[in-house]
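Ticket #4471: structure export looks truncated?
Reporter: QA, pipeline team
Priority: medium

Steps to reproduce: submit the single chain below to the structure queue and open the exported record.
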Amino acid sequence: MNKFDLAIVGAGIMGLAHAFHAAKAGLSVAVFDRNPKAQGASVRNFGMLALNAQAPGVQLSGALKSLKYWQEIAPQAGFELCQSGCMFVERAPEEMAVLAEFAQSAKMVEHGTSLLTASDLGRYCQVLREDRILGGLFSEQTWKVDQRQASRKIATWLKQKYDVSFYFSTDVQDVSLPHISTSVGSFKAGHIILCNGDEFVSLFPDAFAKSGVTSCQLQMMRTHPQPSGWRLQPFVMGGLSMSRYSAFASCASLHDLVTMQAARFKPYLDEGIHVIIAQEPDGSVTIGDSHAYENGTELARSSKIDTLILKEATEMVILADPRIAQRWLGHYAYLQNAGSIIISPEDGVTAVSQTNGQGMTHGFSIAEEVISNIMH
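Actual output as written to the record:
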């Protein structure tokens, strides 16, 4: 029977981050995933390290710490990581007021941010719909990961560099430490960490139910690759993102923006829509997303939501080829007003969930703390 110091359930970014820190500390590590490869929130996203969205202090420092690990791992594992930047565009006076207030605060310096007039926009992004945009805020502290490659390549690298054992297409059925029962046999481990996203029903469901964590469903899409020469470069967002991100939460002018959105953007707010636009290494453009907060119940895909997302996206960016090649639903664990939860259902078991959809931004710093606590 194979025995490991640490077993991890889930081979997404959170699971891989824990495997990285544990193996680096000298522990023998096994990672189990019920799928042939990671296919949850870690690949169904924008590949955004959203430092621009973090409130200064603990949030931003944790994101910066995670970024350093991404910068260490990406060139060794062989996937793309680039400093893309992020553009918040303003199309209404209320949006302009929020960005102008933010630009006058100390937070602007921490985020490496520049306030732009309409004439400045083309220096940062040449495919914006400038006839409808009054100005913008460019943040250099935003990074783009190739999310469709990162999980697979990190797993391969961890196996080669740190001898981490991976068991894909393997369902963990029962945990009674030191014994772990799986669909391919039994294992032993000194400790187990659950990093299985919004999968709450198979292992320790009562502990998850007690924590109050639920699930968020996203609706996203991706275009065909754009013609050669068409380049977005930064992530692009608008006012609906300003009212969601904690970086802007302390701006007094946010109240007027929220009031305006309640009157003019109610269909978007009803579906939890805030639009992010990002270009992938192959030239395709990822566009999303909506947010529906349910308890593990998958909702039917909505063409209405797609239409709203695309309408908002094309108000900000001119797509050379707007044809949609792929549509999908994503899910992540969600707990209101909490970035993450760490619970211990029983001795030797730790469950870790990123609960605000920013696992790529914070995963490595959260995992470092969890592994440190286990070791000590």
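Status: closed, not a bug. The export was complete when the record was re-opened. Leaving a note from the reviewer for reference: The first strand starts at residue 3 and ends at 9.
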